[in-house]
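Sequence, please.
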C-alpha cells in the first residue's frame, strides 16, 4: 500500500499536468503561426542581382566609410523606384539588412540604404545625405553624425528589431520623393523581414 494517499498524489501531479498541457498549447500555437506565415503571399522578386548589389555596396562602404568586415548574410527588406517628371530619369533605392560573422557567432549587424541611377551609373552606393544645420542637433538619427551627415548605415551589436528598422527607414527611405520626383513602384519583402528581424514590419514605408 502506498504511503501517500491518492488525494495527495493527485494534488502533487496536477501542476505537471497543467505544465504539459501549456507546453502542448504553445507548441500548437507556434506550429499554427508557422503555417500561417507559410501561407502568406511570397515576397516580391527583387528586380536586381542581389549578389552584385552586395559586392558593389561593400566596395563602396570600404572606400567611403572604411568598412573592413565581409558580410555573411545580405538581405533586401524593401525597395522603391522613382522618376523625375520631366526627364523620366530614374533612381532606385533599397533598404538593406546585413550580418557580419558566421551564423553561430555573428560579429555585428547593419541596416543600410543604397541607391543607383541606372541612366547614369549602374553601380550601387550608399545614400549619403548632407544637410545644412542652423543649430546643433538635439537628436541624432540612426546613421547620422552630429554634423548632420547621414551615412545611410547604422551598426548594431544585436539583430535590429522591427522598430529599429522603421526608425532607420524613416530618415529617408519611407519619405515621399521630393518634387519633381514621383514613385513608380516598389516592394516590401515581408517574409524576409519576418525571417531575419523576427517581427513583421511595424511601419508604413509608403509603398503601395
Amino acid at each position: 500500500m502506498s504511503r501517500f494517499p491518492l488525494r495527495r498524489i493527485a494534488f502533487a501531479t496536477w501542476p505537471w499536468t497543467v505544465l504539459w498541457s501549456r507546453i502542448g498549447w504553445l507548441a500548437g500555437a507556434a506550429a499554427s503561426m508557422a503555417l500561417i506565415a507559410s501561407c502568406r503571399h511570397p515576397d516580391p522578386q527583387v528586380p536586381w542581382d542581389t549578389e552584385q548589389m552586395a559586392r558593389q555596396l561593400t566596395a563602396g562602404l570600404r572606400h567611403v566609410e572604411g568598412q573592413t568586415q565581409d558580410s555573411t548574410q545580405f538581405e533586401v527588406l524593401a525597395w522603391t523606384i522613382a522618376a523625375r517628371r520631366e526627364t523620366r530619369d530614374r533612381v532606385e533605392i533599397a533598404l538593406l539588412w546585413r550580418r557580419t560573422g558566421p551564423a553561430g557567432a555573428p560579429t555585428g549587424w547593419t541596416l543600410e540604404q543604397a541607391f543607383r541611377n541606372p541612366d547614369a551609373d549602374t553601380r550601387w552606393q550608399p545614400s549619403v545625405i548632407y544637410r545644412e544645420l542652423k543649430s546643433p542637433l538635439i537628436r541624432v538619427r540612426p546613421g547620422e553624425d552630429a554634423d548632420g551627415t547621414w551615412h545611410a548605415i547604422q551598426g548594431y551589436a544585436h539583430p535590429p528589431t522591427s522598430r529599429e528598422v522603421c526608425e532607420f527607414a524613416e530618415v529617408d527611405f519611407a519619405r515621399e520623393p521630393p518634387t519633381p520626383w514621383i514613385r513608380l513602384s516598389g516592394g516590401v519583402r515581408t517574409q524576409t523581414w519576418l525571417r531575419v528581424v523576427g517581427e513583421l514590419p511595424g511601419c508604413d514605408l509608403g509603398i503601395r
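The first helix runs from residue 6 to 39.
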